């Protein structure tokens, strides 16, 4: 079996490297020396360059002006973006517009995805629920009010009530894609304009200094055409977001290990580079193994999402394995980097502290490895019983 990337996937990664080549992560203020977030808002100039390079519509079909590529290509681009801590909502925007195109109704498919793929609109996703630990779709209720008593397919509007916390890019996006649940246990996705009656945003700041938003929906009326009711839409969007976060963790970890290797090769102690010391070499080798495990599990999960290939277990099993390695691996990589850099790693004039903060943010976003191991165990048990 050939596991090499296609020419189109490699071309997307090469284009991303070109766009991100001029991004300097150490040029952005740090929460250690400034008030507020790591970086206010996102890099609009970089967003425009991504749009010009056709990297915002990777998952859109060619009829909508996209590249017609898959989750593997998106993860390759996200991997490059994380190496420079790019200040763009590339993951959320790409995953949202791909989901809307695949599952949305005709009116929704003909409007938002193409414009978002050209960079004219920015989409984000409220995927953390009320506490960050509970299912996001249970944090918001959705009640349909049809026209003249008709059902959801006959128009009308939906009324949303609830709270979604830790919404990334909430103050910069034009539309927020919000999962919600109905009284019948159905999950829906609502496309909510940021400036809309019944929509209230409150600023939140994460432990890494990242600016997030608490989204409160107070009887917000959303037109039926802007609500996705197709079965599987939320599961597909959640899988893309999760796998994309694993790709970001991999790219960040690879950059941090490269920084550590460069520093260890130059830093001398007792007249020798510390990279020549066995204890240093062993720690670096362990982290390299972590990254390779993160990489192979990422591509397995992305390939399952992209191909829809059947397997003994559902794709959620591969995603769980990727989350386990990404969550644990990125933490170990940055901790080792800080240890080997010594006090230099805490210097706010050196970018390692920003990578450390972002790694913790990604780790918390993915959730604890133990929870994913438990979920994987449940899948294995169900498979054995089936």
- Could you estimate the helical fraction of the residues in percent? 40-55%
Q: Spell out the helices and strands N to C.
A: HHHHHHEEEEEEEEHEEHHHH
State the distance separating the first and last CA atoms.
29 Å
Shape, principal axes of CA atoms: globular
Number of domains: 3
As a percent range, the share of strand residues is: 15-25%
- The helix count comes to 11
Question: Pairing-aware structural class of the strands and helices?
Answer: alpha+beta
If you compute it from the alpha carbons, what radius of gyration comes out, rounded to the nearest whole angstrom?
Answer: 21 Å
Q: What fold name goes in the CATH topology slot of the largest domain?
A: Butyryl-CoA Dehydrogenase, subunit A, domain 3
Sheet having the most strands: 4 strands, mixed
Q: Judging by the overall fold, what is the CATH architecture of the largest domain?
A: Up-down Bundle
């Amino acid at each position: 079996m050939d596991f090499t990337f296609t020419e189109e996937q490699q071309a997307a990664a090469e284009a991303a490297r070109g766009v991100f080549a001029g991004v300097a992560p150490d040029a952005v203020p740090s929460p250690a020396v400034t008030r507020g977030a790591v970086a206010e808002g996102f890099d609009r100039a970089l967003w425009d360059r991504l749009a010009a390079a056709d990297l915002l519509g990777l998952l859109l079909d060619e009829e909508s002006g996209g590249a017609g590529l898959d989750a593997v290509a998106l993860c390759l681009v996200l991997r490059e973006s994380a190496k420079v801590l790019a200040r763009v909502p590339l993951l959320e925007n790409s995953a949202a517009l791909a989901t809307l195109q695949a599952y949305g109704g005709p009116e929704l498919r003909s409007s938002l995805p193409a414009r978002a793929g050209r960079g004219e609109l920015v989409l984000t996703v409220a995927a953390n629920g009320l506490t960050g630990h509970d299912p996001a779709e249970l944090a918001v209720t959705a009640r349909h009010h049809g026209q003249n008593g008709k059902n959801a397919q006959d128009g009308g509007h939906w009324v949303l009530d609830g709270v979604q916390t830790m919404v990334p890019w909430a103050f910069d996006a034009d539309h927020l894609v919000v999962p919600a649940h109905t009284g019948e246990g159905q999950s829906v996705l609502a496309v909510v304009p940021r400036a809309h009656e019944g929509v209230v945003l409150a600023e939140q700041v994460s432990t890494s200094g990242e600016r997030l938003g608490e989204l409160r929906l107070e009887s917000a009326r959303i037109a039926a055409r802007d609500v996705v009711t197709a079965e599987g839409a939320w599961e597909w969007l959640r899988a893309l977001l999760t796998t994309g976060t694993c790709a970001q963790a991999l790219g960040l970890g690879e950059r941090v290990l490269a920084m550590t290797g460069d520093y260890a090769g130059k830093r001398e102690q007792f007249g020798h580079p510390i990279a020549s010391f066995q204890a240093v070499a062993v720690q670096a080798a362990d982290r390299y193994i972590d990254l390779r495990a993160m990489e192979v599990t990422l591509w397995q999960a992305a390939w399952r999402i992209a191909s829809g290939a059947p397997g003994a277990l559902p794709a959620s099993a591969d995603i769980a394995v990727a989350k386990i390695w990404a969550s644990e691996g990125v933490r170990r990589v940055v901790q080792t980097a800080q240890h080997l850099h010594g006090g230099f790693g805490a210097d706010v004039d050196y970018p390692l502290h920003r990578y450390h903060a972002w790694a913790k943010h990604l780790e918390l976003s993915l959730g604890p490895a133990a929870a994913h191991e438990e979920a994987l165990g449940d899948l294995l048990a169900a498979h054995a019983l089936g």
